[in-house]
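Hi U.,

Before I forget, here's the chain from the pilot set. I'm dumping it here mostly so it's searchable later in email.
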Amino acid sequence: MELNRKIAGHLLRIKAVFFRPEEPFIWASGIKSPVYCDNRLTLTDIAARTDVENGLASLIRANYPGVEVLMGTSTAGIAHAAITGHIMGLPMGYVRSGAKDHGRQNQIEGKLEKGQKVVVVEDLISTGGSVIEVVNVLREAGAEVLGIVSIFTYGMKKGIVRLEEANVKNVSLTDFNTITAVAAEEGYIRPEDVARLIAFRNNPSDESWIGEAK
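Structure:
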């Protein structure tokens, strides 16, 4: 089985990605969403965790062979960076959302030398804002950011544009198109719901997808 479909199956099985098109979730921004994502659940399922971490290691080896350090995003990417770093025999650290207000006031936790080649480990990419902030912090500290590796990406236009503008590459284990297709095939959603879900992904602020599928 292809890795992206295998990971999609895990995320659906453990409800790390959960579709509810008939009763949308409300994001903090107020946007109504037919999908709920919590990839932290992969950590508590041994089969999913094994395939996710080995998959992240494979993606990093294939796309960023010169990597010297893994840096997780805070907080969701920390455990994945640690486990993947252990698999690959690489050092890891993480980047806080803001500098500490005590002690050494670090924002980057873990040893990082100027010029080191870094891959950022993220669990989920939607609009890309938070992970790009991490990339910028690392660049300001003198790191050479080779790119990002993530478990799941929506492929939202805003996120794609932001990554391009930041001149940073992302590779993901699976994506929104794959997971909706697998969800329909395995009975998590109706086949006629796929177009509605893709419409949401393409324009989250347009709520015309809400309602019964035609």
